[in-house]
Write a structure and sequence with these properties.
Helix content is 37%, strand content 20%. With 189 residues, the protein is an alpha/beta fold.
């Protein structure tokens, strides 16, 4: 059984892609790194996917889906961060009401950093195939007030990234992915 965390590696032609989507790729990598460094071993596999060709229409995601859809019942949740890594506020979530209640309970663990909201509908080109087939999905929600200042522009460089905000995003990704991966049962569908 698999809990998938992800971001995409490719960027728009004119930018370096530090925000879109280097930040999402980084926090996904960091989540698994933190879990390993803490010596935690969840019941399910945590899988990091760094998508390619998202900006060209999600070609990498389509290929991954085609290769793994026969095992769709083993995918517990698919998580994608692709809207920057600014100050987080919570998660977008796609899944049934029982699964949403579980995710809301998990998010209460993040009260100390004030990131507890669960919004309707996860977003993510790379996880859409899975969610359409009933796999619960989550996407990071953060402060988008500056996102379109840099989105698909030459301004999308490392100077956009705030390490303290990225750490908060990585904390959200780490807690959510680990708790779901370590629960007794998979999220209900």
């Amino acid at each position: 059984q698999i809990v998938l965390v992800s971001g995409h590696l490719d960027s728009w032609d004119v930018g370096q892609g530090a925000m879109d989507d280097g930040g999402g790729a980084f926090i996904s990598w960091e989540a698994l790194s933190l879990i390993k460094d803490l010596g935690l071993r969840p019941k399910r596999t945590l899988r990091l996917v760094l998508w390619t060709a998202e900006e060209q229409g999600g070609i990498g995601a389509k290929q991954y889906y085609q290769l793994h859809k026969e095992n769709i019942s083993n995918f517990d949740i698919v998580m994608e961060s692709d809207e920057g890594t600014f100050k987080p506020s919570g998660l977008g979530f796609t899944g049934n009401a029982k699964a949403r209640d579980i995710v809301k309970e998990i998010m209460t663990l993040l009260q100390p950093i004030n990131v507890t909201d669960v919004y309707d509908d996860a977003d993510g080109t790379d996880i859409d195939y899975w969610m359409r087939d009933g796999v619960p999905g989550a996407s990071l929600r953060d402060d988008l007030s500056k996102y379109f200042w840099f989105h698909h522009s030459q301004g999308d460089t490392m100077t956009v990234q705030d390490p303290s905000q990225m750490n908060l995003c990585a904390a959200v990704w780490t807690v959510v992915s680990y708790v779901i991966a370590d629960m007794e049962e998979m999220l209900p569908r």
